[in-house]
Amino acid sequence: APVHMGEEEDDDDDPENRIAKKMLLEEIKANLSSE
Amino acid sequence: LKAENERLFAEFSDFCAQHTGDHPEVMSYLASRHQKTNPEYLASVEFRNVLGRCLTRVQARSSKVYVYINEICTVFKAHSQKKKPPLGP
User: Looking at this predicted complex, what is its ipTM?
Assistant: First the structure.
């Protein structure tokens, strides 16, 4: 299997899921930095 | 209704936790949002309907787990007990 150096492993096949995941993680990060 | 919603939310959380092992902070965030949500809303028919729908869908399509977690988080934010004051100009 190819190895992507420096890239985050992303096995989400569903684009909608990938976007939702990204939004959630950014929201969590923003929440942590505002506290 | 409150007990039923709590049971549904626990079921939703358990299922999602099994499919978000790569990002456990997501489930912690969902739990913290749940705690900050208006108790009246948590015991409402509206919440039961949203939760029931998301639970059924996520169980049928676990590949969209973050979509449904995001949807529940959005609902929790909309019914949060602590509303931030609107930003000034």
Answer: 0.82
Q: Do B29 and A24 touch (CB under 8 A)?
A: yes
pLDDT single digits (tens) B44-69: 999 999 999 999 999 999 999 999 99
Distance between first and last Cα of chain A: 41
CA dihedral B54, B56, B57, B61 (to 10 degrees): 130
Q: Which residues of B22-35 are buried (b: 16+ CB within 10 A; e: fewer)?
A: eeeebbebbeebee
Asked if B29's CB is within 8 angstroms of A20's CB, the reply is: no
Least CB–CB distance from B67: residue in A13, A16, A27: A16
